[in-house]
Amino acid sequence: MSKSILYLVRRLCFYLIAGFAALTLNFVIPRLMPGDPASIIFARFRGKLKPETIDAMRQSFGLTDEPLLMQYWSYIKGILSGNLGTSIAYFPEPVSEIISSGLFWTIFLAGLSLIIAFSLGTLLGIFIAWNRTGKLDTFLPPVLAFLGAFPYFWLAMLILYIFGFSLNWFPLSHAYGNEVTPGLNLPYIFSVLYHASLPALTMVFVSLGGWLLSMRNTMISTLGADYITFANAKGISSRLIMLRYAARNAILPNLTGFGMALGFVLSGALLTEIIFSYPGQGYLLLQAVKAQDFPLMQGIFMTITFAVLAANWLVDIAILVFDPRTRK
Amino acid sequence: MNNYLLSIENLSVDYITDTEPVRAVNNISFGIHTGEIFGLVGESGSGKSTVVQAMMRILPPPGLISNGSVRINGEDILSASESNVKKFRWKQISIVMQSALNALNPVLSIREQISDVLKTHKDLVGIDAETRAKELLSLVDIDEDRLNSHPHQLSGGMKQRVVIAIALAIMPPIIIMDEPTTALDVIVEREILAKIIELRKKLNFTILFITHDLNLLLEFADRLAIMKNGRIVEIDDVENIKQGGQHSYTRKLIGSIPSASGSRQEGLLSKPDSLDFPTTPLIEIKNLRKTFQSPGLFNKNKLTAVDDISFKISEGEIVGLVGESGSGKSTIAKLVTRLIRPTSGTIYLNGENKQVTEARNVPLEYRKIVQMVFQDPFGSLNSIHTVYHHLSRPLLRHRLKSKDELFDYIIKMLETVGLSPGEKFADKFPHEMSGGERQRVAIARALSLKPQIIIADEPTSMLDVSIRMDILEIFARMRKENNLTILFITHDLASARYLADRIIVLKNGSIVEEGPSEDLIQSPSNEYTKQLVNAASPGWLETIHKNSDNKEIIDA
Amino acid sequence: MNSRTQNSNIFRRWFDGILSNKKALIGTYIILFFIFIAIIGPFFIQSPTEFLGTPLTPPSTKNLFGTNGQGQDVFAQTISGARQTLFVGFTTGILVVIIGALIGGIAGFYGGRIDDILSLIINIFLVMPGLPLMVILASWLPPGPGTLLGVLVLTGWAWNARVIRSQMMTFRNRDFVSAAIVSGEKNIRIILVEIMPRMLSLLASSFIGASIYAIGAQVGLEFLGLGDISTVTWGTNLYWASNDLALLTESWWTFVPTGLSIALVSFSLTLINFGIDEVTNPRLISERLWREKIPRNLIKDGVTPVLKNNE
Predict the structure, then answer these.
(1) Are B306 and B332 in contact (CB under 8 A)?
(2) Which helix (H) or strand (E) segment is B138 a member of?
(3) CB within 8 Å: C126 and A260
(4) pTM
(5) Residue A58 included in any domain
(6) Is the dihedral of CA B99, B105, B108, B111 positive or negative?
């Protein structure tokens, strides 16, 4: 048992280091640019801002006259207490508040799409690898690969165009309709799912191919193993062999890849949200870019990074559960 | 012919390729009587494993059975429908697979892997299944709380026993054992075989035993079939085969078996005219120790692979280093060739301390003097380069030959190791040659620098039995003609006796005994050496039965 | 004397092997088509930036793909856009493979302390989500292909480095490497002459994978407005299409051609990768062969088929 705990602690340490690296990167980047970041922005806005605003910005950047190390220390303290600075686009609102409103929706959308795409892709992958008639095998991977070649936001545009604007089957924007009240009531839940359908559909279409192919390939490798032949010789049912012997082994490398793919999935979610005016981090990111709101951009970077690190750690736990070789 | 339990007639098996199908098994027929132990012997490429998998119709794609019948108790499994085939499996015939190390599902517990057969064939669940599973484990002397373990927690020998237990689960009339002990150390192997024979007497089943090791079968089989290139060349009672059999191939196989008992075979080995070696050793190892740290930041586990080893080798001597897996012999090979650095200890070459623990870079001089031949003939050659490349690189690196002299010298080297005409082989790639040919190239590569000593790490273990002698022959000849010193590392005591003047026995990183080959074999003093000698000699079956009260041996 | 030159043989053999695969061949044709268009195309079409006709007119004989929100010819824009997008994409691919081979190769070959440090760096870059970081960097730096290149390489090198490191470690433990070391070969020579040529497939598919990633990410950044919006690239085409409310005005022609081009390019590269996979792992196709050559009714799950029965 202790080997497992040790493993999880080691992984946690790694994520802490990675988190720190991200924080440091965040700190360093504005200071690498020539000149004082606040003045640069001031210059860009050409006098549309009052002097007090500039001071406030400098403060929120942590750009005081203190030595670099002190700045770094106050910066770290600030982050750990939840202070992510003040937004420029939504001045004077603090970044942390702006982000928290959108974080839930991004995670909801990304999570929903991920679960669907991963489950569907994995099941299909098992099936077409096992099933030796091969028609599905020659057809599905290339088609899904083609779908996956489209940028997320482009497919979002196409789907919104067809199903939203033209056919009018689905809503065009937002996470839920105006007629429902947020809370744990059925109308609200239905509305949420209804509004999430197109964005989730987009994301599933793009990512499905990847999961399917990956599972299919690991299944094919696994099916060549000796223990499959032995299981076959034992005379047990084909379904049992496919699931308990082949799939349970084939899924392990995919779980490892799952953690790494999370970053991609979240990035895709951000871009998709923009098209659907879905009120998540993606929409915020677009506003931030338009207004050159660096505190907000950096805040989004930090929250997404932490979310990915946390999710990766959960995947490590899952692997521990599924693969007995990682335990003692 | 009708009193056969298992009868195979005109069996042919092909593998589908993008060109012509490859015929792996060509029209073979044989029968096994009830209660018999029937052996099927063949080297790599003989088709023996294909036969076995075809018999149960578990041969994976691209395999195809082109013709034949396989009858068990009169019923033909090859003409059965899909659902009826499943009825044969495990109830009429079961199998202990080659290298059981991979036959068990890594993510399921032992209990689950035993109980799924019990449920499928006998509808046993719950307590009944549990009881039966415990029974089966006790048959093979495994503790019942191993039911909770996963395969990676068991040793090689234990995994093999578990697979045997599973094969016995439904008590089929015939069990196939496909190279069940090939991957195991020789002592463990003998014990498991003894156990199998004991179980057979107790439970009364028939065995079809597949192996490349003819020597093994001579001890306990009743009848044998010998396969070569997909055909059966001879079938006969074991007694007749022992005399040499009828077919030339059989005779070649019998003649290739070095023995660890009796007197040394005549004429095969060239001993030096006198066993006097110079007193200053060519190479001396003193207090060599190597510990490995398990990888990972917080890992405190250390493994001592080599623990305070000291020995000397004189010029012109052939020393055999004998040990099983985990004995540290491969680590010693890597230490002496300086592929890894020792944790402590010294190596003297020609009297000089080579600073092996301190120096990070190995001087070119050392490389010229100490060379190596590896175990895997395919792995030690780079598949993308020709033979010429492999032989020319060391010479160019050490600037021993100029570009003009290179070609002729390489041709000469190839012919020295028996690859004639040299020109034909110089252009070949590794996959265009057989295992034996590749190993000869590897030896030529090692010899080309004219080293003083060659470390040969299991040079013949991955080669077919029939050519092993020829390879050892090259070493013996090199010693005789060029006074080449050889450290011959092997797990096979008999081969060591055959080639080496002196033998060092290694166990768990330490030397347990050393001495001149003949003396060591005839009168071993250490207990472990005695076990090794017994395992390698005819009559090992009875010796084990005598020791069967000794439970400690069975913890393998 | 011995006239076989090793290296040209290795590359040529590998190349022939890949091109004999159907999928790789199709992919190669498609991508060559687009590269051809990217290089030659702009010379044969009207200016993509000229304000020609009425904005947002659907495809016609005058404007093959219609006009966009500024009145520019969409066909010309699609053709011109290929150049920079493909250039940045492939250049990123090459840079990423070089960096990956350097860092991953050194980490995998030398092991020990060096590997511990390099692996940590690789893993950190691997686990950080790419898009937000790219957005920040691209916002700070002046817009243009140089920025895009830098940002893409910085966020994309880690994946390949890890894969290459893995393979390098596998080879490092093989006997032929030990044999080379024991003969006295220098490490650099072993890496370059003995190991790297065996990693051709991996390096090729790394290059292709990195290019696919670069094209997609580049387009994403430009769509957000972080590219140089005064230039014509596939990404900026989509930026303008969105800005000019393509969906609301139902002007599908302003974004569909560009999107299809992007997809076709990525898809063709994916096909080539499929081909490389199949060539290096023949098991992926050997079963298909077997299935084709054996009568359908004989193929049953988990049971070896029998052709004849001693008739």
Answers:
(1) yes
(2) helix B126-139
(3) yes
(4) 0.87
(5) no
(6) negative
Contact across the interface for C247 and A145, Cβ inside 8 Å: no
Whether A245 sits inside 8 A of B105 (CB atoms) is yes
CB contact under 8 Å between B380 and C176, yes or no, is yes
Given CATH 3.90.1170.50, say whether it is the number of domain C40-251.
no
* Pairing status of strand B318-323 against strand B502-507: parallel
Establish if A307 belongs to a structural domain.
no
Say if residue B551's pLDDT is above 50. Answer: no
State whether A304 and C256 contact (CB < 8 Å).
no
Helices and strands: H and E segment counts in chain A: 13, 0
Residue A321 maps to a domain: no
Strand order of the sheet with strand B37-42? B93-96, B174-178, B206-211, B37-42, B223-228, B231-237
Whole-number Å distance between alpha carbons of C305 and C160: 42
Residue B554: is its pLDDT beyond 50? no
B441 touches B387 (CB < 8 A): yes
End-to-end CA distance of chain C: 57
Note the residue count of chain C: 311
Domain count, chain A: 1
Please state the rounded mean pLDDT for residues B276-302. Answer: 79
Contacts of C64 (CB under 8 A, 6+ apart): C73, C74, C75
Q: What does pLDDT average to in each consecutive run of 10 residues of chain C (311 residues)?
A: 50 79 90 92 77 77 80 87 94 96 94 91 90 86 88 93 94 94 93 92 93 93 89 91 82 89 94 87 71 77 82 55
A58-67, B408-417, B455-464: range with lowest mean pLDDT = A58-67
Which ipTM value was assigned to this complex? 0.85
**Structural domain harbouring A282:** 102-290
Q: Is residue A21 part of a domain?
A: no
For residues B462-486, give the mean pLDDT: 90
Residue B518, amino acid:
E
Instruction: Report all structural domains of chain B as residue ranges with CATH numbers, in order of start.
Output: 286-523 (3.40.50.300)
Q: What is the CATH number of the domain that holds A169?
A: 1.10.3720.10
The residue among B188, B459, C212 whose CA lies nearest residue A210 is C212
Identify all chain B residues contacting C294, using CB atoms and an 8 Å cutoff: 16, 64
pLDDT tens track for B486-539: 999 999 888 898 899 999 999 999 999 999 988 888 889 999 999 998 888 887
C126's tokens: 């691997």
Site from C247, C249, C269, C286 to mutate, A interface, most A CB atoms within 10 angstroms: C247
- How many Å lie between the alpha carbon of B62 and the closest alpha carbon of chain C? 5
All residues at 6 or more sequence positions from A236 whose CB lies less than 8 Å from its CB, including other chains: B116, B117, B120
Measure the CA dihedral A117/A119/A124/A127, to 10°.
Answer: 170
Residues B211, B217 contacting (CB under 8 angstroms) = yes
pLDDT at position B459 over 80: yes
Q: How close B364 comes to chain C (CA, Å)?
A: 6
Distance CA B551, CA C210 (A): 60
pLDDT recorded at residue A99: 86
Q: According to the model, what pLDDT value does residue A38 have?
A: 62
pLDDT score recorded for residue B261: 65
